[in-house]
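Can you give me the bound-state structure? Components:
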Amino acid sequence: MKTDLSPARGMRDLLPATVAVRDHVLAAITDVYRRYGYRRIETPALENIERLQGGQGGENEKLIYRVLRRGLDERVAADTAVGDLIDLGLRYDLTVPLSRFYGQNRASLPDPFRSFQVGPVWRAERPQKGRYRQFYQCDIDMLGEPSVLAEIELVEATTEALAATGLADTTVRVSDRRFLSALAARAEVPEAAWDGLFITLDKLDKIGWAGVRAELTGRGLPEPQVDRLTDTIEGLHGVEAGKLVDALADALPNLGEDVLADLRTTADALAVLAEQRDLRWEFDPTLVRGMGYYTGQIFEIVHPASAGSVAGGGRYDRLIGRLSGTDVPACGISIGFERIVDLLGGTPERASVAVLYDADVPLAEVLAAARRLRAAGRTVSPVRRRGKFGAQLGRLEEWGFGSFVHLRADLLDATAELQERHLGEA
Amino acid sequence: MKTDLSPARGMRDLLPATVAVRDHVLAAITDVYRRYGYRRIETPALENIERLQGGQGGENEKLIYRVLRRGLDERVAADTAVGDLIDLGLRYDLTVPLSRFYGQNRASLPDPFRSFQVGPVWRAERPQKGRYRQFYQCDIDMLGEPSVLAEIELVEATTEALAATGLADTTVRVSDRRFLSALAARAEVPEAAWDGLFITLDKLDKIGWAGVRAELTGRGLPEPQVDRLTDTIEGLHGVEAGKLVDALADALPNLGEDVLADLRTTADALAVLAEQRDLRWEFDPTLVRGMGYYTGQIFEIVHPASAGSVAGGGRYDRLIGRLSGTDVPACGISIGFERIVDLLGGTPERASVAVLYDADVPLAEVLAAARRLRAAGRTVSPVRRRGKFGAQLGRLEEWGFGSFVHLRADLLDATAELQERHLGEA
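Here's the bound-state model for the whole set.
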């Protein structure tokens, strides 16, 4: 029998060494957020299809895995719409489920509610190297907190969580959607064109100023407006943290006092953090963040080892209300779980001991030896002697064992100390 | 806007207190198996539908959530078979994915391979109280080990894992499918009727001997055969562990020497364990275990607090080969994760501190106070003062906080010790 044993297209199996790295990252993150009072929740993988197709998911809604209704006839009646055959879909993110969860369970949740979610989401994307159709998202959100306490705490907890995984030395990039709106308004860009403007700005990293200018004029923005925009942005790039709020007030007189006060509070708090930890922060006037639902400060956290950001998020005060009918101020950060796992790679522990036993050793002796080593705190697995000795030791090493004891029937002595030998030190 | 915010039918949201119990159980189990060298793997939730419908899943195959192909036309052509519209399904257990995983990745896995899996599976069952259409399974398996070392180690590790969750005082029920076959053969039951016979025997707990006898004669078994069967079983019930193997050899001369030797080894090992730990074991001649794929010793682990078993499994030497084309001896135990979580219930920790701050306290002071408490190892969350003081303290207690500090603008003193007060001790 010859069978194709690959995972379904675009999916992957996670082998023990990979899972070990994932578990390490997850444990480090979970422990930090727990100490900030974030509590893990879980929602089902399947949601009613209408909820997933509610229009807030953008392009992701096209990538939903749709699930057939149960109890259908074997043959589909002529002219049936595909939509009539389905009633459920696999979640494509953790935000839509969170909004449903919050609307449903608000009465029994703390206020503000500090939420921690980690789990798989599914998107039927074109398969490509390093991207999979099932992947983990890791979201922390504070729901019900209108002040920038939320923003600051989330950044503080997240940078600490990243450091706990092994990614210290992070830089926090900060901006504010209200700043971007004031910028566009001041340059007299019509409001209908703001989203396009922001999308172009977001590409500065990739296409440079020349590219951004070309795209903006291509979008029909007059040259003088483009000049005014780029001058304002350039003037704010690299402004010293202490002078940021004054610089913003000068550059954009139309910027609300509340926006300035919020940015001042965040800037001061990040300055305190930067003193205490291996952490930098900067205001980045070209930071946009893709999703359209942000309403206030936005963040990205970068690390020298990674080209893309390792975390990002911001305030989204109106989304939960739109999705669930329950209005609530909200702020969240998503950690790039899969990216971080890829960055950290595998670092096998090699702490486990193989109890290598000859075929004629009674199993009771094998089990007793394993038990003795385990009682001493070791990780222990019996393995039967087989094939050439050196070759088998090579395999044990490959499999991640760090050492072994060899049980031979002619040398059994339950009272003697077990002779442990290290692997890989020929 | 009025929206239905319930989870999809038969699904449920897991709130923080529930997730905390689940995480506790999972951490306890994981830690024990890790010390035995079991390594966690993960397979995708979606599998190709042909694999799931391969015929080894029994009734479960009727409960598969089937996933629509991507890129279908909006209207289904006349006379299309439902089967042509789908290509994937959600896994209904962890055994089918394990067999595919093992066949695919065997070359890079240790031999024997100690596998640990935990994760959701999906079954479109009729919704009923306490049963959900998405639930967790927790399977440990040893693949590649032909001897009862596998059986014994799995029972040893599992009873230790159960004790670590808080369920010590377990009893292990042992039988062997080869014993059941010998029993049926000795009573001259035709082989085609064995499965039905075993299914009836399995109901002894529920329907008693009278019920079993009625069902067996109803199945067409002559009275003398039924007598012989029940006499043999009754004679073996409650036999002292030390005399078990002799009793079996006497009662069933057709029982193979290998079966007796295996049972003797397992019995001796369990006797050693029972001396060392709070653990009992017994041979249970009516133990069957539902699935048809078992080939050797079978187990069930029960606990006084639970009507049903809390874990069960056995040897299934031919299943992996049938599913994947790669023959390998295999033995596994499945832990009743959801049942154990239900048994243990919620025991909130109450270790977290609320930093209750008046609206006029600068956020920097709030954050600094939280940071000071966290540096001392505490779990800390700021909460704004709001409403009547006593009522808010009541809410804090409801939300699981164990204590609070109250920050007031007129009493701020960054150097003073924070006055922590306990909740729920009026």
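A couple of observations. The radius of gyration of chain A is 28 Å. Chain A touches chain B through 99 residues (CB under 8 Å).
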